[in-house]
Amino acid sequence: MPASEALNAWEALTAVRAQSPVVHNITNYVVMNTTANALLALGASPVMAHAEEEMEDMVGISAALVLNIGTLSREWVKAMFLAAEHATRRGIPIVLDPVGAGATRYRTGTVRDFLAAFRPAIIRGNASEIMAIRGAGAGTKGVDSLDASQDAVSAARAIYEAHGSVVCISGATDYIIGDRSLRIHNGHPLMTRVTGLGCTASALCGAFAAITPDPVLAAAQAMAVMGVCGEIAAAKADGPGTLQLHFLDALHRLSEADIKGRLRAEVA
Ligand SMILES: Nc1ncnc2c1ncn2[C@@H]1O[C@H](COP(=O)(O)OP(=O)(O)O)[C@@H](O)[C@H]1O
Ligand SMILES: Cc1ncsc1CCOP(=O)(O)O
Ligand SMILES: [Mg+2]
């Protein structure tokens, strides 16, 4: 069976739409609205919450936890660690987006401290962020990658071996590295001109991880949907502004034929 069919992306999307899992996000100020809307358009039920006082209750009603360090500060990091403790105890999947790891010591150090304490089901970042976790590469240009996704594959393998977290490197080709490896060739370069689409990929990883127990498959399903919707949106867009709008509509309208006709996935 071709890798694209084996991803079961359509079946998983149907399950997300039917079950509408609650996805708890502790994310950054830049993308809160963007990723909440993307999760809603997908069919999931997003909630953004970061007060320590409500972490136990919020994790208690969630099916996945998405942690994103895009605008971190001491209080938010404390909330993330607390939420991860509750999620681990409840056995719900954690997705970590190491936004800007490699740009500052605070970001890189926080990600490493987190990985020393917890095991996210999925870590989704761009190539520079993933390499920075292993001390590889020349750093990250703020939140943007200086490297191509294939350059981060050996760092991703090392992270998987050291921590057991599946690593998803986004870029022109998306790599999913775990107990097996997949590549997804969908998407469009215009997606890099809209802030928050990487964070959206991580949020979608959370929605699919809520439905699909195998984290390699869950990450691949999320990246498949991202890539196919990115292509559909780019074909209709005049630039980044309309890409963002068409992307949300594409998530909402995504059909089995869209996925079957466009998805280009292979075993890496
Ligand atoms: N050059 C590209 N061609 C096609 N798709 C891309 C390209 N670069 C990024 N993407 C897609 O854009 C989305 C965001 O990825 P990326 O830009 O790597 O994240 P980040 O914003 O965290 O740096 C992903 O779905 C990825 O597949
Ligand atoms: C611009 C910016 N600055 C801090 S977080 C953030 C958003 C990054 O989002 P993404 O990595 O999805 O483009
Ligand atoms: Mg990012």
Automatic annotation (TrEMBL):
<keyword id="KW-0547">Nucleotide-binding</keyword>
<comment type="function">
    <text>Catalyzes the phosphorylation of the hydroxyl group of 4-methyl-5-beta-hydroxyethylthiazole (THZ).</text>
</comment>
<feature type="binding site">
    <location>
        <position position="124"/>
    </location>
    <ligand>
        <name>ATP</name>
    </ligand>
</feature>
<dbReference type="GO" id="GO:0000287">
    <property type="term" value="F:magnesium ion binding"/>
</dbReference>
<dbReference type="InterPro" id="IPR029056">
    <property type="entry name" value="Ribokinase-like"/>
</dbReference>
<dbReference type="Pfam" id="PF02110">
    <property type="entry name" value="HK"/>
</dbReference>
<keyword id="KW-0067">ATP-binding</keyword>
<dbReference type="GO" id="GO:0004417">
    <property type="term" value="F:hydroxyethylthiazole kinase activity"/>
</dbReference>
<keyword id="KW-0460">Magnesium</keyword>
<dbReference type="GO" id="GO:0005524">
    <property type="term" value="F:ATP binding"/>
</dbReference>
<keyword id="KW-0418">Kinase</keyword>
<keyword id="KW-0784">Thiamine biosynthesis</keyword>
<dbReference type="InterPro" id="IPR000417">
    <property type="entry name" value="Hyethyz_kinase"/>
</dbReference>
<protein>
    <recommendedName>
        <fullName>Hydroxyethylthiazole kinase</fullName>
        <ecNumber>2.7.1.50</ecNumber>
    </recommendedName>
</protein>
<feature type="binding site">
    <location>
        <position position="196"/>
    </location>
    <ligand>
        <name>substrate</name>
    </ligand>
</feature>
<keyword id="KW-0479">Metal-binding</keyword>
<comment type="similarity">
    <text>Belongs to the Thz kinase family.</text>
</comment>
<dbReference type="GO" id="GO:0009228">
    <property type="term" value="P:thiamine biosynthetic process"/>
</dbReference>
<keyword id="KW-0808">Transferase</keyword>
<feature type="binding site">
    <location>
        <position position="170"/>
    </location>
    <ligand>
        <name>ATP</name>
    </ligand>
</feature>
<dbReference type="GO" id="GO:0009229">
    <property type="term" value="P:thiamine diphosphate biosynthetic process"/>
</dbReference>
<feature type="binding site">
    <location>
        <position position="48"/>
    </location>
    <ligand>
        <name>substrate</name>
    </ligand>
</feature>
<comment type="pathway">
    <text>Cofactor biosynthesis; thiamine diphosphate biosynthesis; 4-methyl-5-(2-phosphoethyl)-thiazole from 5-(2-hydroxyethyl)-4-methylthiazole: step 1/1.</text>
</comment>
